[in-house]
Structure prediction request, 158 residues.
Amino acid sequence: MAGTNPRAARIAALIQRVVASSIERELHDKRLASITVTEVRVTNDLQIAKVYWTQLGHEGHEEGERKRAQQALDQAKGHLRSLVGHKAGLRLTPQLQFVFDEVPGEAHEIEDILAVAKKRDEELARVRATAQYAGDADPYKHDDEAEAEGDEFESDEE
Prediction:
């Protein structure tokens, strides 16, 4: 959303709803079939709205589909802006900039890394459960043991 301007935050939410519903209902472009609008950020002066979007793609074809979807969004930018202006009732409608949202893809990568780390932790826990100490379980001398040894030496000397 926007920084500190509550009006910009409200307009960003409105733009997100209008753009998402328009892509789904009014734009009959196959390139936009699997588009999801994830977030909209509006500048505090309400001049520019960055529309972040993501796309569910088929393995191996994501890059090409993403480029085609970006082209379709750029072509529909004027129509979407006029719809936003009409539904929002704004004197000046923000300029729409469509930006591909990298966060979901990065989130999947992080989840994969965490899954590998969890698997390693489980394996380490299994190894640790059957592990034995190389020497004594507690190799350090404690004060009560040192005193007992000291008493033995004193009794030998007497």
